[in-house]
Amino acid sequence: MTRNRLLVVDDEAPLREMVQDYLSMHGFDVRAVPDGAGMWEEFARGAPDLVILDVNLAAESGYDLARQIAEKNRTGILMLTAVGDLPNRLEGLAAGADDYMAKPFEPRELLARVRSVIRRLGEVEADRPGLVRLGRCVFDSVGRRLVGPGGEDIDLTAMEFDLLSVFLRHPRQILSRERLCQLAHDRAFEPGDRSIDIRITRLRKKIETDPEKPAHLKTVRGEGYVYEPA
Q: CA-CA distance, 51 to 168, in Å (whole number)?
């Protein structure tokens, strides 16, 4: 069986080595580097399944690196930080992280978090080539269509399809309007632009059992939106 590939990015050598040794003991193929330059060198050899990324690197921001990873790859991201309060956690999730841990931590908890992220990413990857259950509907990514509970086709505009595809590629990640515009429509967000909100309202009416209390396309006040899988 192929082992999942992990990459640890942390400028604290003792912690970096401890994480590498511990996760290697539990069946993962683990590489470890101290900075973003080393990280991108590893990516050039092949994207890992998951990056364990420190927020406070000596020469760069882990948040910035997380955004760059999320924009270019399907790699999972678990962020580590000495600060565990809510604003920092939200910033990490908004940057594209799949999970967030504050230092110090128990290695066993890290192992559990790593396994959980890998499992979730595997579920999404398995669904991606075919059909995805989405609320009361089924999303056909190959046929570019949305199928209702009675088997009927539900009309999707091209921009609604692109927006929905972005959410499915980034489950449980808080996505700002700015990032949604960039990822879904390849354009910059303009102040006062409500097009994203309008499309999400329309999508909720199509996929949610109760559009007024969405279970899948949720609003995160002051941050943006998040897709919560079933």
A: 20
Query: What pLDDT, on the 0 to 100 scale, is given for residue 2?
Result: 56
Rounded to whole angstroms, how far apart are CA atoms 128 and 140? 9
Task: Determine the Cα angle at 197 with ends 196 and 200, to 5°.
Answer: 85
Query: Residue 122: its pLDDT value, please?
Result: 64
Query: Which three-class secondary structure state does DSSP give residue 113?
Result: helix
Give Cα separations from 164 to 2, 32, 171 (angstroms).
31, 35, 11
For residue 173, give the nearest of 130, 122, 121, 102 by alpha carbon: 121
CB 146 within 8 A of CB 207: yes
Q: Which residues contact 5 (CB under 8 A, 6 or more apart)?
A: 28, 29, 30, 31, 46, 48, 49, 50
Mean pLDDT, the chain cut into blocks of 10 residues (230 residues total): 83 94 93 95 89 90 88 82 70 77 90 85 51 77 75 82 88 90 83 88 91 93 88
Between strands 76-81 and 50-54, the pairing is parallel
CA 57 to each of CA 63, 136, 173: distance values in angstroms, whole numbers, following the listed order = 10, 43, 22
pLDDT on residue 125? 47
For domain 131-227, give its CATH number from 1.10.10.10, 1.20.1070.10, 3.40.430.10, 1.10.760.10. 1.10.10.10
